[in-house]
Amino acid sequence: MSNTTFPSARKSGLVVQEVPDEVLIYDLESNKAHCLNKTAAAVWQACNGSNSVDDITAVLERSTGSKVTDEMVWLALDQLSENNLLEAEVKANFNGQTRREVLKKIGLASVIALPIVASLVAPKSAMASASCACTLSSQCPGRGCPSDTCCNGDLICAPELTPGGCF
To answer: Which of 6, 10, 122, 130 keeps 20 to 30 A from 69, CA to CA?
Structure first.
């Protein structure tokens, strides 16, 4: 594996909240929320553009007090890159192994948690609104909303999620 990559963590367009053993990141551009476990967070925080993969491995070893392989760092970088949390795309080279094979190998030999980036798409702001122009289809005369849906005032019908309320 080439360790001459110098990854840089993306900082713009993100809202970052550090909590014990995790880093929560909300991507304002993609409307995605990401939860980095302690291992993935340590790798992301070490990606300053001047640390090589070997340097990041050493940082992770110091922070965990455990032996860390380059493969673990590459796995974390692969996930961070896949979720657009690095400035530039990083292609992990697992020397002909699949990600699953690398996960098995690292998981069996590792005393620290595998790096995990859990992501989900956040609702659009219009859909996350706590109020609607109307709460029942009967309040949208002539708009063609079925009786079991509500209309948000933009001629869009959606199933009611709460009694008398809109999405």
So the answer is: 10
